[in-house]
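User: I'm writing a tutorial on reading structure tokens. Could you give me a worked example: one chain, its sequence, then its tokens, then a sentence or two explaining what the tokens reveal?
Assistant: Sure. Here is the example chain.
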Amino acid sequence: MDAAVDAEADRLRRLPESRLRRGAAAEALALARALADRAQRLERPDFPPRPFPDAGIHTVGDQVAVAGHDLSEALRAVDDEALALRELAGALALLPRRGG
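And here are its predicted structure tokens:
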């Protein structure tokens, strides 16, 4: 999870401003919000997730990294291994697939 999140965050940090403005930043913010929601639901299942801020197009790489690493830590703390594996699979499915 951490490696996949880091790779996506690094890719976003390298994008030119023009690509960010054409939608890449909005997509990345949506990804960060989805990852943060998953982490919060694991950490505080009885409470609704707190809003994840829009800090601007130049921060989306960092926002994906922070949200992804928060989720990774939340997954490590889950006692139910089956739940953790389902959540991990769901989170990884959110990350863009990159050929390598």
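What the tokens reveal: Residues 3 and 69 are 10 Å apart (CA to CA). DSSP finds four helices and no strands in the chain.
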